[in-house]
Design goal:
By secondary structure, this protein is an alpha+beta fold. Helix content is 22%, strand content 41%. The chain has a single domain (71-317), classed as TolB, C-terminal domain (Neuraminidase). Bound molecules: 2-acetamido-2-deoxy-beta-D-glucopyranose (2 copies).
């Protein structure tokens, strides 16, 4: 298209008269002035088109579809907060007013809690029945939805009174992660499937197979809805996948191995995996933590300038699916 418009210009130039506005009569110097001006305008136009072409082509190489779909982010820690080192974090979300809601796992230790962000102090706690292993948690209106591991049973709690709760069953293979956009629930069950669940009927209304390039991404764990995307911890990795809920495509990867490395360097032991993403949409704050981690981090993302070489993301962020059976 641009080449065509370049070629057209000389034609226009060959019959400049048609384009000429009425001129003061008998003034040959003003006519030659006009020619100079129109020649100048033409040169200027050609120059301008070339500049635009250069800029747009360099934009395409930088923001081409490949780079956009495949963006990799490193993180910067903005602030550290205390986190209960006995909390086996399975669900995390921001509840407003500098509080978090958290769901913890392990049989006999499963709970949901309301936690003060700044101090890590537990403001309210509901201990689950010992037969349940708590998993993902999300808040829709006044209700907290929670799923459990190796069961198709979940619970709905009143956010202001954890003693008020009811049981539900769902249609996922297992209960791992939950998130919401305020309309539907998004769920994960340890496979590569991202579910959409009707919060009223609790029936699955849509499923997407989450893929990065040609690879399925199993082990989708804790979920968070962030600015129109689903962000997922991938179990047993230090990666968060940014997923399109429309087609399941992984739009980008956030790499967080520095957090675990920092804790290990500080002498912390018995850490389990990175898990837990919370998004404060009012103040654009992003929080992450891990199971049995003594800290919770507010982080910022930075797109990495150099794309990791081929296979690096696959090795870091994708694990084989694991079959769990209830004992
Ligand atoms: C916010 O938290 C503070 C401190 O815990 C509390 O005093 C205040 O009542 C809370 N505000 C709201 C609107 O919940
Ligand atoms: C919380 O809910 C329980 C069970 O419905 C009820 O017995 C209790 O009075 C409630 N507590 C408060 C403070 O509302």
């Amino acid at each position: 298209m641009a080449g065509g418009s370049l070629r057209k210009k000389p034609h226009k130039r060959s019959s400049p008269k048609e384009a000429q506005p009425p001129m003061p009569s008998g003034s040959s110097s003003s006519r030659s002035n006009y020619r100079k001006i129109s020649l100048f305008a033409m040169v200027f136009l050609v120059f301008w088109v070339l500049i635009v072409l250069c800029i747009s082509s360099s934009m395409w190489t930088g923001l081409g579809s490949d780079a956009r779909l495949d963006q990799v982010y490193s993180i910067e820690v903005v602030k550290e907060f205390p986190h209960d080192p006995t909390a086996f974090t399975q669900g995390l979300l921001y509840g407003g007013n500098d509080t978090l809601f958290e769901s913890t796992g392990l049989r006999g230790q499963s709970s949901i809690r309301k936690v003060a962000l700044q101090t890590g102090k537990i403001l309210a706690l509901h201990k689950m029945d010992d037969s349940y292993f708590g998993e993902g948690l999300t808040l829709l209106g006044e209700r907290l939805f929670q799923v459990t591991w190796l069961e198709n049973i979940g619970f709905i709690y009143d956010r202001n009174n954890f003693s008020k709760f009811e049981k539900f069953t769902h249609q996922m293979q297992d209960g791992w992660g939950l998130a919401t956009d305020g309309k539907v629930l998004y769920g994960s069950d340890g496979t590569s499937t991202l579910y959409q669940i009707d919060p009223q009927t609790l029936k699955v209304i849509q499923k997407q197979n989450v893929k990065y390039k040609d690879h399925e991404v199993p082990n989708l764990n804790e979920l968070e809805y962030v600015n129109g995307e689903i962000w997922a911890n991938v179990w047993e990795t230090d990666c968060i996948a940014r997923i399109s809920h429309e087609n399941g495509v992984v739009l980008g990867w956030i790499l967080l191995p520095s957090l675990r490395q920092g804790l290990l360097k500080a002498g912390r032991r018995n850490l389990d995996v990175l898990n837990g993403i919370a998004w404060d949409s009012d103040r654009n704050r992003l929080f992450v933590t891990g199971k049995l981690w003594p800290k919770l981090y507010e982080i910022k993302l930075h797109p990495v300038r150099e794309k990791p070489s081929d296979g690096v993301i696959e090795r870091m962020c994708i694990r084989k699916p694991v079959q769990f059976v209830r004992q």
